[in-house]
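Components:
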Amino acid sequence: QITLKESGPTLVKPTQTLTLTCSFSGFSLGAGGVGVGWIRQPPGKALEWLAVLYWNDDKRYSPSLKNRLTINKDTSKNQVVLTMTDMDPVDTATYYCAHSRLAGNWYFDLWGRGTLVTVSS
Amino acid sequence: SYDLTQPPSVSVSPGQTARITCSGDDLPNRYAYWYQQKPGQAPLLVIYKDSERPSGIPERFSGYNSGTRVTLTISGVQAEDEADYYCQSSDSSGTVFGGGTKLTVL
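Structure:
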C-alpha cells in the first residue's frame, strides 16, 4: 500500500525559505517509471504543479517558479524534499506531494493529505 | 508550457449525465488525466490515459479524447459526485493542470 505524508512548517515569514518533506512508503524511488511530485493549491483556487523528481534523479520544475524551487531525494529515508526560496504571502497554499507514474504520460495516482503553509509576518 | 481550459462550473440533476470538458492545443499529442477533489480532501484520480478507469472508480465515470478537447463524462450522476474536477496533462518538460470545474448536483 502506497502512502505519502507531507511535513514542514505551517507558518513562514516573507522572504524566508520553505522546506517541505514528503515521507513515503509502499514504493521505491529506485524503481523505474516512478516519481514524486509536488503540487500546491491556494485557498479556494486551482491546483498548480510545482516540481517532480523521477526514479533516475531527473527533475522538472514549473517554468514560472523554477528559479525558486529545488527538489531532491533521500532514497535511504524514502523522502523527497522541496525547497522554495523567497516566500511571499501569495505562496500561502496547501502543498501536496504525490506518487507519479508513467502511463502514456506522467500523472499522479496517489496523493498525500497535504499541508497548509501560511506566509505572513 | 501550455494551457488547459475548463468551464468554471457545470450543474446537473441527480440521475442525469454530466460532461466536463478540457481544451488544449497540444491535447492531440498527449494523454489527459482527471482528478476529483471534494472539500477538505486531496485530489483523487478518476481517469487516466484519456479513458482508463483506476481500480475502485465507479463505471459511471468515463473519458474520451477528441483532439484538442477531452471530456469527462459522469453518467447517472449521484449527490456524492458533487466536487471540483481537474484535468491534467504532461510532456517531457513538465505538467499542467486545468483551472478546475465545480460540478453541482442540483
